[in-house]
Every structure is written in structure tokens, then in C-alpha cells.
Design a protein that fits this description.
Layout (H helix, E strand, L loop, with lengths): L1 E4 L6 H14 L7 E2 L2 H5 L5 E2 H4 L16 H9 L11 E4 L13 H7 L11 E4 L4
Parallel strand pairs: 1-4, 1-5, 2-3
EC number: 5.6.2.3
Family: Belongs to the helicase family.
Pfam families: PIF1
């Protein structure tokens, strides 16, 4: 489980596209997903997570996504390891945006952040530092 951290413009998307190309060139499966359509368009073969995995999205103000990616991949692979033993490379910039929690307090927003997940302790963080 990896997380690529870096400010906007430091090459996260470029790095992800290189990783995708390398994995695919070795005849392995690499699935590129993003939380937004704009971000998905920037990834080679990228799609939104809800589109790729057919996650139903109800467009109501109080909707929440009641699916846990970790648990889903453990169920699919029948492997009781984080994310079913599948290598995950995530990325982002916590300096740019936090999760949206409608009518949430600062505490609710922090708790919704991936850094508050019990899985965060096993994530290997890589920092991009040169623009």
C-alpha cells in the first residue's frame, strides 16, 4: 500500500501514468481510478471509481458511500490481507483539499480523511519534492 504525496504540479499524474505503462507492458493488470472525472481523464485508461466498479451513487445531499474498498477486495480475492493483497498506489495532496462532509465539524472532516483510517499505519508514503 503506497501513497504518493506532493504539491500540485510536482508530477504525481506523470508518475502514475509511467507506473501504469510499466505494469501493463509486463502483461499485468493495472486499473486507474480517480474520485473525479477530471482526474480520471488525466490517467491513461482512467475512469472514476464509481464508474469502474459500478458503485451506485445516489445524488442526494445526505448520501454517503457505504462501501469499504479494503473489505471488498478481501472478499473478491478471498485473501485476508489489506486490500486482498493487491498492490495499491494512491496519491494526492492534503494541502489542496480535504474530504467533503456535509454539515460536518472540523472533527468530522479530519475523521473522514484517509489519514484517520486504521490502514494508514501500514501505508508507505513517498514524497515528491522536486518540481
Amino acid at each position: 500500500l503506497f501513497f504518493v504525496d506532493g504539491p500540485g504540479g510536482y508530477g504525481k499524474t506523470f508518475l502514475f501514468n509511467i507506473i501504469l505503462a510499466k505494469v501493463r507492458s509486463e502483461s499485468n493488470i493495472a486499473i486507474a481510478v480517480a474520485s473525479s472525472g477530471i482526474a480520471a481523464l488525466l490517467l491513461n485508461g482512467g475512469r472514476t471509481a464509481h464508474s469502474r466498479f459500478k458503485i451506485p451513487i445516489k445524488l442526494f445531499e445526505n448520501s454517503t458511500l457505504n462501501i469499504t474498498v479494503d473489505r471488498t477486495f478481501r472478499d473478491i480475492t478471498e485473501v485476508d490481507k489489506p486490500f486482498g493483497g493487491i498492490i495499491f498506489v494512491m496519491g494526492g495532496d492534503f494541502r489542496q483539499i480535504l474530504p467533503v462532509v456535509i454539515r460536518g465539524t472540523c472533527s468530522h472532516i479530519v475523521n473522514a480523511c484517509i489519514k484517520s483510517s486504521s490502514l494508514w499505519r501500514i501505508v508507505q508514503i513517498m514524497h515528491l519534492t522536486i518540481n
